[in-house]
Design brief:
about 400 residues; alpha/beta; Spore Coat Polysaccharide Biosynthesis Protein SpsA, Chain A; eight-stranded mixed beta sheet; 12 strands; about 50% helix; transferase activity; Nucleotide-diphossugar_trans; Glycosyl transferase; transferase
Amino acid sequence: MGDFHQNGIITTLHNLSDRPLEEMEAELVRFQKTRPMSLILPSLFSELEGEAMPNIISHLTQVPYLSEIVVGLDRADESQYRFALEFFSQLPQHHRVLWNDGPRLLALDNELREKGLAPRELGKGRNVWYCMGYVLASGVGESVALHDCDIVTYDRSLLARLIYPVANPFFNYEFCKGYYARVASGKINGRVCRLLVTPLVRALKRVLGPLEYLDYMDSFRYPLAGEFSFRRDVLTDLRIPSDWGLEIGVLSEMHRNYAHNRLCQVDIADTYDHKHQSLSLDDRNAGLSKMSIDIAKAVFRKLATQGEVFTPETFRTIKATYFRIALDFVETYHNDAIMNGLSHDLHEEEVAVEMFAQNIMEAGQAFLDNPMKTPFIPSWNRVASAMPDVFDRLREAVEEDNKEFSATVRS
């Protein structure tokens, strides 16, 4: 059972009573009559063949309140798209699979690219962006949840708790971030959040002084969680990064667009585990190494938009301050693990901290070398202004794919 402490400037909704799932789902069924609910699943085709996704779909078949499920399918050829249509056909809810690598959606993507409006790189950010566009195009969901497709500990209670704050018509939240303890297989996971994001935010507070944005970021218990929910109107002017800075970028956008009392975070799982990225000590373009660089750049860019001035000397000070704080966190988590009977490798943790410290400098230099770079994908408001029929065309492309290949699968 979690505590009830409110330890930041963002409302925290705890799990205080292990409320029966059936009771919460019954409420969500009532809410659905006035606030229809959609779920976004950004997926790689390979995840359909893993252990997590079949279990997730098994749980989703039992969810009674969803009006729509939107699946973004990446890295799939035609035969794999056909397989995906069959795979998701067990869902009783209305659902659509966006074949992001199919000719129809690629043609639309190319046209947007010519106008400078398409995502610049492949990845989760692009997948999520097109799924959000489809939600706007379909007009079905008023409340929308999004979660990852590699959660091996998935239970449908996660979704119920995630979407409840934005589905309850008596709450005024526009956005909700999920959080959980990253503990599995007898150890504490979540190295990038524990050993990079929180120590970096604390270091920036010490170097730059009190900043409301940093207090805001420090309020989130798991800022890198891929699980969040929002009201549909949030999607129109949301600009998201296409790289590993997605989660930080979304939080930064919420900070820019909404008052704090319209945002919250919610405890969605006692245990949570998904596939783990390698540290990639020798490759800054892969694994946790690339992730840490992208995340640090996202934070630096946000602070720059608020008038903070960065120099090479600033980044050296940030790195040194971060390193000391992060090493203290290593000891803190070691003691926490030992007290709870969990394993904890001090050496591996300190190796990660050393890499993250170097990557803070790498991210800082990248920012200084190209301060005008805009990694954000344009908002759908902007896209619709430049291409007024974009939602009709997006919906038509998805429907034509579904019609053509679903018929083939059934035959």
